[in-house]
Design goal:
- The chain is mainly α and 306 residues long.
- Helices cover 52% and strands 3% of the residues.
- It contains twelve helices and three strands, in the order αααααααβββααααα.
- It has a three-stranded antiparallel beta sheet with strand order 1-2-3, with no helix packed on it.
- A hairpin with an 8-residue loop joins strand 2 and strand 3.
- Helix 3 runs antiparallel to helix 4 and helix 5 packs across helix 9.
- It is globular.
């Protein structure tokens, strides 16, 4: 018996669905997300744009989509990137099912994601940190120290404005975050000194903590000076984002709980920081001691009964 498909699915093509998704959903997302999705959806529109949604509900559709996803594999496209292409298409078709009501099933739900490599954790040793800071000068030194002391992301540091620094309450408000949700970071004495010094030096000539040397109304871009500092320091296989890993790794090794670390880094879920758990098994010690005491208690009772 032939299955009856949503009558709407035969009226609309994937191209129409993508356009509606971009105009009604994607337009409300962060700019970086938009750029990424536009790029990924362009591929699917080129390959499957003329197909009706009814055709994508056919039994052979998941295999076709999987083959197209797999065809993206290249030295420049990892399994992670291929999965992102699939996720973009799945987001569109998911809306067609649960929002636009143009489909009954999402064929992407039948496709398993490719195995992705383990998350990379690279953090500075004490000697590397010293060598790197020795190679940094002026504004770059301040920016790198702030990254090491806060764990903030690159753009959160580079785009920071003085209006987001609360000197009275000793905290920094990060407004432009990856999650899109503002968060606050407590200021240590070191951070306070750096920011106060920068405010005096800049003397209200710019809103930015790290203004561009060319245009004070724009944030600085440290790409060139950062690359130079890395080369001079001899630190290899290291990115700016690894300053964030360094902060997180040192925090865990110092005994900061994973829940607190997640809050400091701006992660809504603790599982986002589990990658650092192996650096400090101390958070399991108290639990292990309690378990050991209970087992010991049981042994003593058995001995008395013998």
């Amino acid at each position: 018996m032939t299955k009856k498909y949503n009558t709407e699915s035969a009226k609309h093509t994937l191209k129409e669905a993508i356009n509606k998704y971009e105009n009604q959903v994607l337009i409300n997302r962060k700019r970086n997300t938009q750029i990424s999705f536009y790029h990924h959806l362009e591929f699917w529109e080129e390959k499957l744009g003329d197909k009706t949604l009814a055709e994508l509900e056919q039994p052979n559709a998941p295999l076709l989509i999987k083959e197209l996803r797999d065809s993206l594999k290249s030295p420049k496209r990892s399994a992670t990137t291929q999965n992102r292409y699939l996720s973009a298409l799945s987001a569109v078709l998911g809306r067609c099912v649960k929002d636009f009501l143009w489909m009954d099933i999402n064929p992407c739900s039948k496709i398993m994601k490719l195995e992705e490599p383990t998350h990379r954790i690279r953090y500075l040793s004490k000697q590397e940190q010293e060598d790197l800071l020795d190679a940094c000068e002026g504004d770059l030194w301040d920016a790198v120290v702030m990254a090491l002391k806060t764990g903030a992301r690159k753009k959160e540091i580079w785009n920071l404005k003085f209006e987001d620094v609360d000197f009275k309450r000793n905290h920094i408000r990060l407004m432009e975050t990856k999650s899109g949700k503002p968060r606050s970071i407590p200021m240590t004495k070191d951070l306070m000194e750096i920011l106060q010094r920068r405010r005096r030096t800049i003397n209200f000539t710019s809103h930015y903590v790290f203004p561009s040397k060319v245009n004070p109304n724009a944030p600085n871009n440290f790409e060139r000076t950062w690359d130079t500092a890395l080369r001079i320091s001899g630190v290899t296989n290291f990115r700016w984002h690894d300053l964030r890993h360094t902060f997180a790794s040192r925090a865990v090794m110092a005994g900061v709980t994973l829940r607190s670390l997640a809050d400091l880094l701006g992660h809504a879920k603790v599982d986002m920081v589990f990658r650092y758990a192996h650096l400090s098994p101390q958070h399991l010690v108290s639990s292990m001691e309690l378990a050991g005491e209970e087992i010991g208690e049981c042994q003593m009772k058995v001995k008395k009964m013998a």
